[in-house]
Specification:
151 residues; mainly alpha; Cytochrome Bc1 Complex, Chain D, domain 2; two-stranded antiparallel ribbon; 9 helices; globular; binds heme C
Length: 151
Amino acid sequence: MSIVRSPLRTLLLLFGLSASYLHAQAAPSGAAVFVRCTPCHQANGAGIPGAFPPLAGSSWVTGPVDRPIAILLHGLQGPLTVSGASYNGVMLPYGTGVAMTDAELAAVLTYIRTTWGNRATPVTVADIARVRAKTKGRTKPFSEAELLALR
Ligand code: HEC
């Protein structure tokens, strides 16, 4: 077997695999993380009228970055107006209640702020850490008024 006869090649192969693993750890793909949001917000970001609000064209997504970060970290309790329509549901922290790393949060938020025609600045891991610190100890989901007070 050539893999046995070529220890150097084996070493390079292993090095390449671990390098790509480390790279994947450092920079998760926003599109891949977004799969966790699609049962409710849909792959095209349009949501489901009356139940799940759209992310495409939403000023909650493209406005001050602390707001969507706070929604993901702590959840959201309606009522909430999105693009002129009223919603009165609840979103769990992280959408599913299952925690995400700061890198995953930055990636998914950058994805939703720059997809489906949304044009907003990317979100950094430092942004997530800042809002985590600012909202530390919070145990309740955010209300619309509390989100509007964040900037
Ligand atoms: C189980 C369903 C569900 C999942 C999964 C979910 N959300 Fe939500 N999300 C909601 C609901 C419901 C609301 C609105 C709550 C209300 O009615 O006040 C909402 C609101 C939002 C809002 C603010 C309103 C808007 O439309 O702009 C953002 C931003 C958001 N979600 C982002 C995400 C992201 C990003 C993910 C994936 C990481 C995610 N959500 C996963 C149900 C979900």
